[in-house]
From TrEMBL:
One GO CC term, this protein: plasma membrane
SUPFAM superfamilies: P-loop containing nucleoside triphosphate hydrolases (SSF52540)
Keyword annotations of the record: Cell membrane, GTP-binding, Lipoprotein, Membrane, Methylation, Nucleotide-binding, Prenylation
This protein's name: Uncharacterized protein
Compartments where located: Cell membrane
Principal cellular location given in the protein's record: membrane
Keyword Membrane appears in the UniProt entry: yes
Alphabetical list of InterPro entries matching this protein: P-loop_NTPase (IPR027417), Small_GTP-bd (IPR005225), Small_GTPase (IPR001806), Small_GTPase_Rho (IPR003578)
CDD domains: Rho
GO molecular function: GTP binding; GTPase activity
Family: Belongs to the small GTPase superfamily. Rho family.
């Protein structure tokens, strides 16, 4: 069975854990518990004619702490990572700025490449709050939210893909993890072979990139520290 180790990084409280729990357990966590190290294991069945030799794979999702207290401990999880996911909150601009200023430099020496493609993904979280559709159902205007165009521009600058999601509503959530598997399994096509596609941050352009069987997903969680 193919195994993919995916490490998720980003500032504290940007929604990394909520994103992972919402995807692996299909539920939004009731309360916030700061992470040190958690590991979520997902078994996925694949039905894609482009990769007929791969029928199932194990996706190991490593949830890390973003607080500075864990700066020396956190990099221990980076060894032998296949894909990195760098998260920021679309309603907290400082976390967006830190993608370029802190997180990309921190993982840069460990970033794997495949056929010239950096195996990393930038994910903007909490888009329900940016759109005023949070759990309290109010339409409170967020001050200086990060727009999708800004995320796309940063991802282009760093040479990676940008996507957005909401752990609460699960908008764009499945597409994020489909793309993680896609990055790991599928080699990048040459520019001349690539067809024009919708914007990198849209939810429609990657949903069909890889065909997964949703009904056979098995998840478990292991708290490492």
């Amino acid at each position: 069975m193919h195994k993919c180790k995916c490490v998720v990084v980003g500032d504290g409280s940007v929604g990394k854990t909520c994103m992972l729990i919402s995807y692996t357990k299909n539920q939004f966590p009731a309360e916030y518990v700061p992470t040190v190290f958690d590991n979520y294991c997902v078994q996925i069945d694949i039905d894609d004619e482009d990769i007929p030799d791969v029928r199932e794979m194990q996706l190991d999702l490593w949830d890390t702490a973003g607080q500075e207290d864990y700066n020396k401990l956190r990099p221990l999880s980076y060894e032998e990572a296949d894909v990195f996911v760098i998260c920021f909150s679309t309603v907290e601009r400082s976390s967006f700025d830190n993608v370029k200023d802190r997180w990309f430099p921190e993982v840069s020496s460990k970033l794997p490449e495949k056929n010239g493609m950096i195996c990393a993904l930038i994910v903007g979280t909490k888009i329900d709050l940016r759109e005023g559709n949070g759990p309290d159902k109010t339409k409170t205007k967020v001050k200086d939210p990060v727009k999708i165009e800004e995320g796309e521009a940063l991802a282009k600058e760093l040479g990676v893909t940008y996507m957005e999601c909401s752990a609460l509503t699960q908008t764009g959530l499945k597409e994020v993890f489909t793309k993680i598997v896609d990055i790991y399994l599928k080699p990048k096509k040459a520019p001349s072979e690539e067809k024009a596609s919708p914007r990198a941050g849209s939810f429609s352009n990657l949903a069909g990139a890889l065909k997964l069987k949703d009904d056979v997903k098995i998840s478990c969680q292991c708290t490492l520290m």
